[in-house]
């Protein structure tokens, strides 16, 4: 065998070896793939939250069900019911309810499409705060907020409810921390805080902002103690009569001026509300934490005639709500304002007074 033949045979053997190695590699790759698919089955891509298991199914054009892991399953709530709107069947006369503990109020509804009251069902989201009767009467059980719902078919009308607590401390009445003085609730004769700093600071800011707009709002009458109010009230009784005085002036102990939270702006003139100052005060005093304490049209609720100049500090948040909802402090706190027979604080006049 020549050298050339030996060289040619060696080249042929090397090609056979390379081909054999390539075939062995392909065979090993195929075996590994089969083993991996057996140990780790194919998982179909699906948008499932953590904890959800997507079962392996044969490929198909249909959607794939998701089997939920019980350990992570959340309660499925029914779809929300529709809120009544302008085109709805049930409506409420006022979209809120303020109530005191152990007080009851019936929520008045406006019904259309021949719906009757007995077709409405009532529920609450917190039975610890209020009790709701089948006719929509709500009773406050404890201090807090909740929602009362009136349901008719697929409509649900939600009424937010605030239950407040009235307490008496050292002869003073507070409802959720707000000091009350009106015809029903009195202050002790020795209660004498003066004009409170929070009232003065808020009013000073109000005056300054009004002045920047060219308006002259000032303090006409601020704090009055029990004795001074006694003089004011008895003077009006002598000048007119007791019935008339009770519509304009508080009896001693029942005046808001004694709380230290009240200011009469400018002069006590029924025309003040029509002045630029009076209009600005009505529109903006809530921004400083004040309310028009005796608004027009609410005389039967407050017990006093409309006084556009009389403002009471209650804090910005309370003032905003009272202003926006166009209600009185009595409505907001669920209290009345009336002198009651047999109440010694309501009937006593000073020694210098005159009877009717």
Structural summary, described in words:
The strands form six sheets. Strands 3, 5, 8, 11 and 12 form a five-stranded mixed sheet that branches. The protein has a four-stranded antiparallel sheet with strand order 16-17-19-18. It is elongated and about 140 Å long. The protein contains nine helices and 19 strands. Helix 3 crosses helix 4 (242-248). The chain has helices at 3-39, 197-212, 226-239, 242-248, 276-284, 299-302, 316-325, 329-333, 344-347; strands at residues 52-53, 67-68, 82-83, 90-92, 97-100, 104-106, 109-111, 121-124, 130-132, 137-140, 144-152, 155-164, 166-169, 172-175, 178-180, 219-221, 262-265, 290-294, 307-313.
- The proportion of strand residues reads 15-25%
- H/E order of the elements? HEEEEEEEEEEEEEEEHEHHEHEHEHHH
- What is the mean predicted local confidence, pLDDT? 81
Whole-number radius of gyration? 39 Å
The largest sheet is: 5 strands, mixed
Assigned CATH architecture of the largest domain:
2-Layer Sandwich
Poorly predicted runs are: 38-83, 342-356
Number of strands: 19
The total domain count is 3
CATH hierarchy, class of the largest domain: Alpha Beta
**End-to-end CA span:** 155 Å
Residues in helix, %? 25-40%
Shape: elongated
How many helical elements?
Answer: 9
Quick synopsis:
This protein is α+β, with helices and mostly antiparallel strands and 356 residues long. It has helices at 3-39, 197-212, 226-239, 242-248, 276-284, 299-302, 316-325, 329-333, 344-347, and strands at 52-53, 67-68, 82-83, 90-92, 97-100, 104-106, 109-111, 121-124, 130-132, 137-140, 144-152, 155-164, 166-169, 172-175, 178-180, 219-221, 262-265, 290-294, 307-313.
């Amino acid at each position: 065998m020549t050298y050339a033949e030996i060289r040619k045979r060696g080249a042929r053997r090397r090609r056979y070896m390379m081909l054999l190695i390539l075939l062995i590699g392909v065979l090993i790759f195929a075996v590994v793939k089969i083993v991996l698919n057996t140990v780790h089955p194919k998982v179909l891509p699906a948008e499932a939250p953590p904890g959800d298991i997507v079962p392996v199914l044969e490929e198909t054009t249909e959607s794939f069900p998701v089997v939920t892991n019980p350990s992570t399953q959340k309660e499925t709530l029914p779809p929300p019911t529709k809120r009544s709107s302008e085109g709805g069947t049930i409506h409420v006369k006022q979209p809120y309810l303020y109530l005191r503990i152990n007080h009851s109020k019936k929520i008045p509804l406006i019904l259309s499409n021949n719906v009757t009251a007995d077709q409405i069902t009532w529920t609450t989201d917190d039975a610890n705060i209020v009790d709701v009767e089948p006719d929509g009467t709500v009773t406050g059980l404890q201090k807090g907020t909740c929602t009362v719902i009136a349901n008719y078919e697929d409509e649900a009308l939600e009424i937010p409810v605030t239950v407040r607590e009235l307490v008496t401390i050292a002869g003073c009445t507070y409802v959720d921390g707000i000091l009350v003085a009106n015809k029903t609730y009195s202050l002790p004769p020795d209660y004498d805080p003066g004009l409170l700093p929070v009232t003065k600071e808020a009013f000073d800011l109000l005056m300054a902002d009004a002045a920047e707009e060219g308006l002259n709002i000032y303090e006409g009458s601020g704090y009055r103690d029990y004795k001074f109010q006694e003089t004011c009230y008895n003077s009006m009784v002598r000048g007119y009569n007791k019935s008339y005085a009770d519509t304009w002036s508080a009896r001693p102990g029942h005046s808001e001026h004694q709380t230290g939270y009240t200011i009469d702006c400018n002069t006590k003139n029924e025309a003040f509300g029509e002045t630029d100052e009076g209009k600005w005060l009505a529109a903006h005093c809530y921004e400083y934490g004040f309310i028009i304490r005796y608004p027009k049209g609410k005389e039967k609720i407050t017990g006093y005639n409309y006084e556009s100049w009389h403002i009471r500090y209650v804090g910005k948040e309370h003032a905003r709500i009272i202003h926006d909802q166009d209600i009185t402090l009595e409505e907001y706190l669920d209290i009345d304002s009336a002198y009651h027979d047999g109440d010694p604080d309501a009937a006593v006049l000073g020694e210098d007074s005159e009877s009717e």
